[in-house]
Amino acid sequence: MTEPYSQGADTIEESGGAIAGMTLREVIGAIVRRRWIVLGVAAVVVAIGVWRTIRQPRIYRAAATVRIQQARNALATQPAYDAYDPRTDPLLSEQQVIRSQTVAEGVVDRLGLRLVIVRPPGLRRDVLFGSHQPVVDSTARLGDFELRFNPATYSLSSGGASYGEAPYGTPLSGGGVRVQVDSRPNVEGDRVVFTVLRRENAALFVRGTVETKVLPQTNIVEISYEGTEPALVRDIVNAVAEEYQEFSSERQKSTAREKSRYTKTAVDSQAVALQRAQDALENFKKTNRVGSAVAEREALEK
Predict the structure, then answer these.
(1) Which strand (E) or helix (H) includes residue 147?
(2) End-to-end alpha carbon distance in the chain
(3) Residues 6 or more apart from 183 whose CB is under 8 A from it?
(4) Sequential pLDDT tens for the chain (302 residues)
(5) Beta carbons of 158 and 105 less than 8 angstroms apart
(6) Please, which of 5, 26, 106, 157 could form a disulfide with 243 given CB 3.0 to 4.6 Å?
(7) What is the CB neighbour count within 10 angstroms for residue 98?
(8) How distant, in Å, are the alpha carbons of 78, 132, 173, 202 from that of 60?
(9) 210 near 223, Cβ under 8 Å?
(10) 99, 213 in Cβ contact below 8 A?
């Protein structure tokens, strides 16, 4: 035998202005009686939200634009690599170049992005180095370096090796790294630890964070970057645009040199062929005693 289904006691029903057997007035009265609890819970929720908002790092965005110029049409006698292909999108291709490994590695070298501050966490590069970009050359050892700060000088070391001490405002070099600190930073423990990454790994980070898009109805590409350090965000965007321009300029020069070599080769080849034809004609004349018609007429007139 089945029994009719009945809702549990915790189910809320609305009927005739009552909620779970309570009138609206009774509900309001219960809230008023417990208003301090309600206000306390609301205050805690708001405080947590504000705290989380304050704790979150600010995100900065910078953008730069570059104008994409179409390559000149190649001459018919030039190689096929200059031929127009309707299946390709030039603007899409240039965006891929902007986000390429080659451009990213140029940005890494230009800004010293192989150097990454490890401790203290959150220390900005511009706070430590000011306007001086650190330099990390190809011989730099991978791993951690340490900067220690004294009242008037600072020192650089790595792996037990000391690379010297210098007054603030004087660059220090060692282990393939060159840095300059203008004044003693306010850091806990009077020291900063940074690590040196592989060039290709630092470039992959740049490639993964730089974005590009084509502005509508133009041949202009916008390059953008987001990060927590405003100066670094600005510098990376500008460096990407500059590296792309230099890469494009070198690519055009390389193409022009290739065209020049091709043209010179073609001209030299034609000159050789013409000389051979002239030599063959002279040999034919000598072999078959064929003379000049003008010379024969002058000989007859004498």
Answers:
(1) strand 143-149
(2) 148
(3) 168, 169
(4) 444 434 444 444 444 445 556 777 777 777 777 778 777 877 778 777 767 766 667 889 999 999 987 655 444 444 444 445 556 788 999 999 999 999 999 999 999 999 999 999 889 999 999 999 999 998 898 999 999 999 999 999 998 899 999 999 999 999 999 999 999 998 888 899 999 999 999 999 999 899 999 999 999 999 999 988 999 999 999 999 999 999 988 777 766 667 777 777 777 677 777 777 777 767 766 776 655 555 555 554 55
(5) no
(6) 106
(7) 22
(8) 47, 21, 31, 20
(9) yes
(10) no
SS3 of residue 194 by DSSP: strand
Residue with tokens 């992005």: 113
| Residue 8, amino acid | G
User: What's the predicted TM-score (pTM) here?
Assistant: 0.66
Place of tokens 């965005």: 61
One-letter amino acid for residue 262 of the chain: Y
The torsion region of residue 130 among left (phi > 0), alpha (psi -120 to 50) and beta comes to left
Q: Tokens 């992959």 label which residue?
A: 204
- Report the distance separating Cα 179 and Cα 194, nearest Å: 11
The sheet with strand 220-227 has its strands ordered as 60-67, 220-227, 211-214
